[in-house]
Design a protein that fits this description.
By secondary structure, the chain is of the alpha+beta class. The protein folds into 4 domains: 15-139, Tetratricopeptide repeat domain (Serine Threonine Protein Phosphatase 5, Tetratricopeptide repeat, Alpha Horseshoe); 145-414, TolB, C-terminal domain (Neuraminidase, 6 Propeller); 419-501, Immunoglobulin-like, CATH 2.60.40; 516-630, OmpA-like domain (60s Ribosomal Protein L30, Chain: A). Strand 13 and strand 14 (266-271) form a beta hairpin. Helix 2 packs antiparallel against helix 3. The longest helix has 27 residues, at 8-34.
Length: 635
């Protein structure tokens, strides 16, 4: 039996050939990666990495998987990179976002925190760290929306729905052979399709939009004018089937307009005036009057990634693009704007975010945008959620999401948020007040609700959204108490807590209110004093049979007689204010005490601060009797 052994030279030649083969594969993979042919790049990188652990190649393959949502594969490569040498900067953030998408929030939070330690002002890291830490809050109102996934025959994926003629216009992909495939993900290029609803779960076959809109490459997110005859849509940058690219070999998006002709075809395509070969412009939205066009763009002057911009109709064309500002735009991507009533909805990878793209809502008032609010689960998930559209009633609509693995359209129903008032009545020492009568009056409708408190002083009542209530608590031997609560502006189900401390009816008993202060040597009612006196008006109205005294006190500066006169003037000024605001004159009396009842040691000839003297300049409020008693013979 003979044994054949390779010579050292043969082994060396084999190693050189293998290394050369690996180098060629890495070069081919890099070329595919630069062209954004990600599936091809992934295959080539995987073969090369089986023979060499090239760090840059592993970063590229991880990013390629992340780009088209192959998160498990991306996580595997990021984890190996991080284990070999801890990731930093944007690569660490990319890894953390992948972990968020896989609901591994604690590990993601650790990475966000790592980035913040080196760059504490990194807004992207800060937003996403807060999101990972506060993830439970995304599930605060899970019952407000009910979602149903639509099955749209004839297309493999669908997103960016637009209600149209009893159905939808959507951007979607068909399954095609490799010669027609998009190198980005090896699926078909996007076109705009139209489908009609038979029922909520049954739709007609999706047909390409008739006319000139669909072409050789991508046609995507669009918006219709109010009359349904003008379509603004997103398209790849190409001319006669040739894809145009910038110096960095990137093909950008452009906006186009089409009009519906008399034959029902979309024609007369015109490019948006502010398109460019050097940056992307797409994802259009229109204001209700059609005079403001919103869009997403990575043009210069933004905050990073894709930002939201708008142009106004000048009468002769679209004016210069205006960035929507720091409140809305982040270092991440802001995409898919839609206008629903007076609200702007959009998707973002920044802000307070569950992972991927989340849908947010904001409103413009006096030229300023409110801080966007996350629409929470189930509208948002750890996946990409986008293009939120409401119908005219605001009670149903559509969105798109890849939560199932591929982009799909979902119909949703909006349920009014549920609100409850959870209250407790207590005495001044904190003891429970059972059997207290509680009455709620809806200030919008006049409707009354009533209840009695339980043994532990509690009451619970369902209340209406977008309403203001007066809460009145009555109990024998106690002053009636009135409070106000409101659900206006609240969009998420909530329980409003109210603690009512009730005061016993006892002649000579001082009522617990904030003192009413005066400026030195004055008896005018200051604005802060007016607010406190306004609170007293409701006490008088709730207790019309009781008589109260307003006693005014001065500090020790000035003569004793002068201070007595001054305090009497102050008390009378407060009483006059109350009477002007509806208090019955027979319910209220004024009394000046001068400097007889100081609350501290700041007497005559004692040096004190101005604050200490002001504590003595006060008006106090106490119960002195009852009109029933005053009118009874012998009293």
């Amino acid at each position: 039996m003979s044994t054949h052994r390779l010579s050292p030279l043969a082994l060396w030649l084999a190693a050189v050939l293998l290394q050369a083969c690996t180098t060629v594969r890495l070069h081919q993979a890099d070329k595919a990666y630069d062209l954004m042919h990600f599936p091809k790049a992934e295959r080539l990188y995987e073969k090369a990495l089986a023979r060499t652990d090239d760090r840059l190649a592993r970063v590229h393959v991880a990013n390629a998987y992340r780009k088209h949502n192959a998160l498990e594969q991306a996580r595997s490569h990021y984890a190996r990179l991080d284990s070999a040498r801890p990731l930093t900067g944007d690569t660490a953030l990319d890894y953390a976002e992948v972990l968020m998408g896989l609901t591994e929030r604690e590990a993601a939070a650790d990475l966000f925190f790592r980035v913040l330690q080196g760059s504490p002002e990194n807004r992207r890291a800060l937003d996403l760290y807060e999101s990972a830490q506060g993830y439970h809050s995304f599930f605060a109102d899970t019952g407000r929306y009910i979602l149903t996934r639509l099955t749209l025959p004839g297309i493999a994926t669908a997103f960016s729905p637009i209600p149209y003629q009893g159905g939808l216009i959507v951007a979607g992909e068909r399954m095609v052979d490799d010669k027609q495939a998009n190198p980005w993900n090896e699926r078909s290029f996007l076109d705009l399709y139209q489908t009609t609803s038979r029922t909520i779960v049954t739709w007609t076959d999706a047909k390409p939009l008739p006319g000139e809109v669909n072409g050789a490459y991508h046609e995507g997110p669009a918006v219709l004018s109010a009359d349904g005859r003008t379509l603004y849509f997103t398209r790849s940058n190409y001319v006669e089937r040739k894809l145009l690219k910038d110096e960095g070999n990137t093909s950008h998006l452009k906006l186009f307009r089409a009009t519906l002709d008399s034959t029902g075809n979309w024609s007369d395509l015109r490019a948006f005036a502010h398109n460019s070969d050097d940056w992307s412009t797409g994802h259009p939205a229109l204001s209700r009057d059609g005079r403001t066009l919103y869009f997403a763009s990575d043009r210069p002057g933004g905050y990073g990634g894709m930002d939201l911009w708008r142009c106004r109709d000048s009468g002769t064309g679209w004016g210069e693009p205006e960035n929507l500002g720091y409140t809305i735009n982040t270092p991440g991507n802001e995409l898919f704007p839609t206008i629903n009533g007076d609200a702007l909805h959009f998707s973002s990878t920044g802000h307070f975010n569950m992972g991927g793209l989340d849908i947010l809502e904001t409103h413009e008032q006096d030229g300023h945008w409110a801080m966007p609010k996350n629409l929470l689960y189930p509208i948002n998930t750890e996946h990409d959620d986008m293009h939120f559209v409401l119908d005219g009633t605001g009670l149903s609509g559509y969105l798109s999401s890849d939560r199932s693995g591929l982009d799909q359209v979902y119909a949703f129903t909006v349920y009014e948020p549920l609100f409850y008032l959870d209250g407790i009545t207590l005495d001044q020492e904190g003891g429970f007040l059972s059997n207290t009568a509680v009455e709620l009056t809806n200030m919008e409708t006049g409707e009354d609700l009533s209840a009695f408190t339980s043994a532990d002083g509690r009451f619970n009542l369902a209340i209406e959204p977008n309403s203001e209530y007066v809460v009145r608590c009555e109990r024998e031997g106690m002053l009636t108490s009135t409070n106000r609560i409101s659900t206006k502006g609240l969009t998420r189900s909530d329980t409003i807590s109210l603690e009512v401390r009730m005061t016993p009816i006892q002649v000579g008993q001082s009522i617990a209110i904030n003192n009413i202060y005066y400026d030195y040597d004055k008896w005018d009612i200051r604005p802060d004093a007016a607010k406190e006196l306004d609170k007293l008006v409701s006490i008088f109205q709730d207790n019309p049979k009781l008589i109260f005294e307003l006693g005014s006190h001065t500090d020790s500066r000035g003569g004793d007689l002068y201070n007595l006169v001054l305090s009497d003037a102050r008390a009378q000024a407060a009483v006059n204010y109350l009477i002007r605001n509806g208090v019955a004159p027979e319910q209220i009396s004024a009394k000046g005490y001068g400097e007889d009842q100081l609350v501290n040691q700041c007497g005559n000839a004692v040096r004190c601060t101005e604050e200490a003297h002001q504590a003595n300049r006060r008006t106090e409020f106490k119960l002195t009797g009852s009109l029933d008693l005053a009118s009874t013979p012998g009293h």
